[in-house]
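Discussion board: Methods & Data

I've been asked by a reviewer to show the raw model output for two of the constructs in my manuscript, not just the figures. I'm not sure how much to include, so I'm pasting the format here to get opinions. Each protein appears as its amino acid sequence followed by a line of discrete structure tokens. Is this the kind of thing reviewers expect to see in a supplement, or should I convert it first? Here is construct A:
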Amino acid sequence: MDKRLLLALALSALVIITFTYLFPPPPPRPHVPGAADSAHVAAVPGAPATSLIPTAPAAPARALAGAAPAAAAAASTSGTPTGTPTGTPSGTPSGMPSTPVDTIDLRTPLAVYRMSNLGAAPVGVTILDYKNARPGASPANPYVDLGLPAVPMLRYRIIAPHDTLDLESTVFQLARSSAPGGNPVLTYSATVRGAQVTIAYTFHQDGYLATVRGEIHGLEGGYLLADLPDGFVSHEADTLDDQRNFAYVVKATRSDPQGTAFSKLDPGETKTEPGPISWAAIKSKYFVVGLLAAGADTAHAFAEVDLLGGPRTGTSKTATTAAATAVQPLRDGAFAFDLYAGPQEWKRLHALGRDFENVNPYGGFFHVLTQPLATLVVRTMIWMRAHLNISYGWVIIIFGVTVRLLLWPLNQRAMRSNIKMQVLQPELQAVQAKYKNDQAKLQEAMMKVYRDHGMSPFSPVAGCLPMLIPMPILLTVFFVLRNTIEFRGVPFLWLHDISLSDPLYLLPLVMGLSAYLVSWIGMRNTPPNPQTKMMSYMFPVMMTVMLFRVSAGLNLYYAVQNLATLPQQWLLSRERAKNPLPSTPRVQGRGVSSA
């Protein structure tokens, strides 16, 4: 079988396997009753030998969103904490002044935070710069909201050597103030089991960040357990695709961020990420809620993060809920972290430091290769958008043409090497036929053929290597154009959103036709080869089918790449026409010439 056919089949199989791995259909998983409430106990690194910390929330203190008891949901909507008399904080002796449960809205230029004194935690964050794109969205809720109905975004517990303070069911008193820079500050305080607990939020006006500082007086040692959100309400046009991106991401101080998709956690399955940990986050396709250890040092690093798989919901059995708990040791009775709740805008996440811009790890098992390239591609496109003052649609076109021009010399070398091999092939076949029974003479004759043409046996491999260099770039752009929020909602020509599929399916067809045109021109003035001709039809059709419903921006980039390749293919085709292949094989030297 022709080597080029084998190479083409191998590359096609690689593309199919990679696409199937990256976008698998959601497998049906059995629902395990009560799995969401399961718990186990493990020691936290650095904890006293007698101190055991629950690494997954124990029922009934934590119930996954969508599986909360009706009483808890009713209490949340009515303003009465479950099991606590109205207006009486948990742990407050009777007869003391009561504090009513209240939720307030704190507005910044970019977001609206809904804060509750029940648990002293945010219950939702509305992102004012991003519209709700979900089909059938209510006009009353036009913006993206990161909260879940009737479920607080954060839940706190304090684990002490001899006591546990459940702050989720505690009603705090609120005091308002301002930081020296004018940023609003909300300070919550309460007495819980004789310990004075204070939690202060400072909201930054220029972003989506809040600094969280807490103090517990009257308690020796202990740990803060902060429960992250259990999931999101999807606000995307493709809800299922958004839900497939639901994941927890954990960044240890000495390693790269590690993501765990909800679908990778079986119902009731527990997983512990050991510390020290710089940050832990929950993300959807475009948005993220993260807890970042305060400061650049490890003084307030998280000791561990514990994950718990949630139940599968809906007919597709998609994993839409899970649970995660970040554990932070108390330092002199205090804890501290930064809360980011907002979009995955690269510049904002990068400004926070701690590698938080990599909260969306690209590429699966290609992560080590694609993540640095993804950062470079994103930064380049953002720079082009800012300095050229053009739409991201034109940025994609200019970027695609620029990449093709930069790779032109490498492709030229690879294609010319292929032409030389085509000239060489008849002579090599004649030598192989002549000396098939004498390996020594065969090797000697083949080396002479290579020398006569200024090549070596390694020339075919060296010639193919430049053609492999664009592959990581194509793969990286595939992830960037599908998962970068800067492209969300961007219109271009007839497209109302380049992050969604082309409603008219014009770009996938242009991409497929241009891919075929590249193959057709590339085969001109070459020896007839039925296998190569067959692949020239199969590959464009295969690519069209795979990319038919992916983002229009991705199809636009691939189509531009194909069209920018045509001039190079045409020039090389003319070069082959000027140097036609010999019609008969010829063996020189010790070989026999055949005419």
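Construct B, same format:
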Amino acid sequence: MKPRLLLTSLSEAAIFLAALIGLYFSSLYSYLLFHSLAEMVSVVISGTIFVLAWNSRKIVAPPFFVVLGVSYLFVGFLDLLHALAYTGMGVFPQAGANLPTQLWIAARFLNSLSLFIALGFIKRKVHYPAVFLAYTIAVSLLLIALFLGNLFPDCYLEGLGLTPFKKISEYVISAIFVLTGPLLLKRRETFDPGILRLLISALILTVFSELAFTFYLGVYDLSNLIGHYFKVIAYYLIYKALIETGFVRPYNLLFRDLKKSEEELRRANDQLETRVQQRTAQLIDANRALPAEILERKRAEEGLAEAEKNYSRLVENSLTGIYINLNGKIVFANQKFAEIYGYAKEEIEGIDILKLVHPDDRKLIEERRVRRLRGEELPSEYESRGLTRDGRTIWVSRRNALIDYRGKPAILGNIVETTQRKQMEQSLQESQKGLRLLSAQLLTAQENERKWIAQELHDSIGQTLAAAKFSLERKISQMDVQKAPPGMLLENVLSLIQNGIEEARTIMMNLRPSILDDLGILATINWFCREFQRIYSHLQIHRDIRVEEKDIPNHLKIILFRILQEGMNNVSKHSRANAVFLSLDKTQQTIELEIRDNGLGFSPETSPRGLGLSSMKERTELSGGTFILEAAIGQGTRLRASWPLFPSSSIA
């Protein structure tokens, strides 16, 4: 520090010390005089802080100082009212000691909260008239609560001293000041180091002042005196920080950000010069490398020209037709494309693309072209019919893609003629249709043959065996058993005839159960399940029949029985299950048969399918239905057969 500045600081300290001593002697003469002088000092400093901050608001940065200056104007106003209301002043004679204490607490709350809130405006833009208006409203509400509404809590009671509210408020105010200190230190880069030290010291003394005001019992006692001393010293430090520094060293206070900006600008200029030097060096290197790049580019252009020539040869000799469609016109086509449609290459360029399309497919081709130009996702490959120059209809497979052709969107197309393959597919479909018809006729003939054989067995052999059995039973009843000739007993012959009858009946049922024609499919299912349960007693059959006889078309009854017969036989032979679940159901659209077991299951992908599964699938599909097999190892087997309510089938 320079000698002159040191002398000035020592002089100011001596004057301030003399003022403090003078205040002390004034308290010996009259405490009221001491209090008034101490409060007037704080009021004057508060007003000066506001004047400096408000008049320099356009150049002061950060806004923290201006917001703090506005707050000190209103804090000083409350301090002035506190001094005027103090006991003995006579301005508010009926208020007693409670009113000045309330004004003191209101001013301290406003001071602590303002300092805390002002830290939030260090790096934010502030609308100062709005801040002034907010403080005006807040202080007005406080005055209404103090003087008109009697809403502010009591702070001092005669004979009792300070109220709990007053003491707790002082502690809360002290806590706010204490919390403000670390926040100031956190933003230390915003302040001059000397100003920051003064502000922190003022905060510490203010906290001591608030704590001192929690102990006094009378408004003239020692704690009150000490509290005012701390307050005067704190205001002096704030004066040093925000007033004296603002006038004596305004460059550091008011234009500190400008200095920062200049330093940042200087650093930016240095960096810019460095970058310019680096860029210049890069340009020199680039100029040196430019001839090599030009040579390399020339070689690349020559290579590109050669590649284009090779690509052109590849396109012309391609086995597929290649063309470009721009706005519905063919602007390019290779030789193969022209050959497919029977044109010369020179003739086909410029022709309307729809002229090469069969009339029935022109709408499809045009719609796909428009949608592809709009960028919609479409299958890249599809088939359509075309027209050759001599009017023949051909089939072509198309593969299209959207490209940019000389700055305009166009369609790049590849075509392969598939007429011969299409004819072969149609022939194959007709052959398959004939085979399916033949298979259906064979199944129908098989069922008719079985029905005839079953009838013949029933009408001839069955009746003959039944008549022989009846005659033999009658003869045995008429004979004397004691006179029976030696040899086979007639009872054994009767047993053989009975076995023959049973076997004939089983054969007839397997060929064509007569119960199906006599009573219908539901009775046949019940009969079959009883017979199956009798033979395979270890299998439990769970039936769920939810249809009526009239719901099932006649041509489906024998098919349902054959699928049931084959499916149940597969369960008994291969599944090792102990339960079978059988359901026959009708929905609004289908009739569905399901057979499910809890057996070992199998893998349909790896296990070969026997004739039984193939037969069931073929019967279902030939009758217009759908057959689904679901199986997995360890999870049983499930087969479902479903038919539309009005299936189309030639099987009767």
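Answer (T.O., handling editor elsewhere):
This is acceptable in a supplement if you add a one-line summary per construct. For B, something like: The CA atoms of residues 154 and 204 lie 27 Å apart.
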